[in-house]
Amino acid sequence: MISRAAKSRTADLFAENASPAPAGSWQPAVPTPLQPAGRPRAKQLWYAAVFPQLVKEHSTALLQRLCMHAQQFTSFVSIEPPNALMLEIKGSLKLFGPRLPSDIDARWRQLELQAYSATAPSTLAALWLARGAMGRPRQPCPGTPASTPIHIEDLGMLPGRLAELPIACTAWDIERLQTLRAMGVTRVGELLRLPRAGLARRLGKATVQDLDIALARQFAPRRAFVPRERFRARCDFETEIETVAYLEKALEPLIARCADFLRERQAGVQTLRLKLRHRADPATHVHLGLASITSERRRLMDVLAQKLIRLELQAPVRDMELISGALQPLSAGSLDVFAGRPSAGASGRDSLPQLVERLRARLGEDAVYGVVSIAEHRPEAAWRRVQELRGEKMADHPILTDRGMPRPVWLLAAPLPLESVLLILEQGPERIESGWWDGKGVARDYYIARQTRGARPHGAPLAHGARLWVFQERQSKRWYLHGMFA
Amino acid sequence: MAKTWMPRDVSTLADILADARVWRLKDASAAPTRPVWSTGCSSLDARLPGGGWPTASLIEVLLGDIGLGEVQLFLPALVECQRRVSQGGGGEAPWLVWIAPPHEPYAPALAQQGIELERFLVVQPASATEALWAAEQALGSGVCAAVFLWLKGTDDRWLRRLKLAAEAGGALGVLFRPERHRFESSPASLRLLMTQGEHEARLDLLKVQGGRPGPVDLGGTPLGAA
Known about the structure:
The complex is a heterodimer of chains A (486) and B (226). Chain A has 486 residues and is an alpha+beta fold. Chain A has helices at 4-17, 59-70, 90-96, 100-110, 123-135, 158-163, 174-182, 188-192, 196-203, 205-214, 244-264, 297-309, 352-363; strands at 46-50, 77-80, 84-88, 116-120, 150-151, 232-241, 267-278, 284-294, 317-324, 328-329, 368-373, 383-386, 410-417, 421-434, 442-454, 467-473, 479-484. Chain B is globular. Chain B is an alpha/beta fold and 226 residues long. Chain B has helices spanning 2-5, 13-18, 26-29, 42-47, 75-88, 107-113, 128-141, 156-169; strands at residues 36-37, 53-54, 57-63, 95-99, 104-105, 120-123, 144-150, 172-178, 190-196, 201-208, 214-216.
């Protein structure tokens, strides 16, 4: 909050600086590099609609649905959270005629939605004008025909119409608006008369940029709404199904339809969901994650079948629904017409991702993994599991050993204390002393040893004569078994 | 004559094959015989038909105990096949899959031996049945160069399934089982027995299809080196 004294001082300062320059003297600070070639900015016409009924929490999904409706009027629809849509309608005007904005308004009324709209040559101008319309008391109630819609096509008229708007229409953050009010600015017109440099200093460059965009002096790229399509198909059973085998049979046509759906769109999915509804119990969900994007019927069926095998039905199933995840573009691999090797899937041969996902579907995600070697002296930290399997040759695996001392094929999960075991030390020692900085420090002398006689260490299935990787802890002088050569 | 159709600036075989004018008569020229991988041990190679480990078949190794050098027996072949595949280009099956190994395969050791860890897969199933199922899937998939499976025991029917899968997928399938199964019948085309001798590991060929069974003199090759 700004105190009254401060406020008046700000206002005075401001009065000194304020120049009575007309709005036309407003010069863009930044040239307009974003302007697409062949499409001058004045050629754009934006229709903005504000839906005051939309509550913030649920607005995204609703706006997306409204976008679908709006897409019948134009190919470019953009969402302005929390409650507005913007449509680029310049091109559509030719097709639908000059009544297009009121047609779109009529569409909202049909959906029983209260909407305030405006059409202007720039995105922000349309949005601000629509918000301005919302604030006016003489605006139409839902159901009644709109009074004269706000429609500006002439760039010259834009500053004049924007000037009337209260600054709240910009929907800037509270801080900026309060500062402006403290400066005595209540209308956009007053804002436009302020010196540009001072405004940028006080309220930030974004403010000036917004004004440039509103006046169509700068092009603001917007993200177009792209509908998220999904495959969704349901299968009702005549009788309740109790065995998984029948489910699998019933699933086949659904999967086939899904594969067709994907193929038509040249898309693939990486996730699928199968929802099994019961009479009384809550529905069972089977989630399916694939190792790579696919649209192949056989592969989808294979993996789902593996999932179903492991499924234990809690109750008989009345109907089931197959829902795909988000569609993703399928990257086409070119096939060699004359190649001897048939493509994966066509002949019963798989690719590795297919094999991995089949194994993971049945054995669990963690049961299938790769290993990498890490440049680290401590043996237990010199490797780790990896879930992502690439198959491409990466950088060389660094192995830190002393004079090429060999490492054992098997590493025990934890070093095993050796007691009363007679060992012949064949090679060593290799001193490994590292890791004091992270609290897991080791100070060990490693040897390659062969066991001769004596009791086996508890729990270690050791052959006498097997080659072992043992170490002596340097502080405690105790011996441990850490790995086995095989 | 050849120069008239050869593409210019050809440096590698891959470039020639990529040329649209070159057709490959791959299937026609491919010999029906299965490739064989050298064991890296000449006295063992000499005893095996074809001079190495047969692919597209099941090999059974019966172990007196683990840690006798049983992995080292196959490592040179694994390295060789991975190297050959990465040099020879696409179409081949380069992955190595180890199913239910008795301990964690130690990545630095494998890298030290020359295994490409990028194409190395470990599967740890919860039960023996799942291990067998995983092995069948991996062997039959056609993307694996070699599939190793460690088992406590299994029945003849499963072994037949594994053998069929290995024949279909063309992989080298190796099954490690305890020594106590040596008197059971097995469909494996090659059966080996590894036991601890007086000073070093002993290797016996129990069954060799197209070869002669009997003990193998490993001749001081460093079997325990890994």
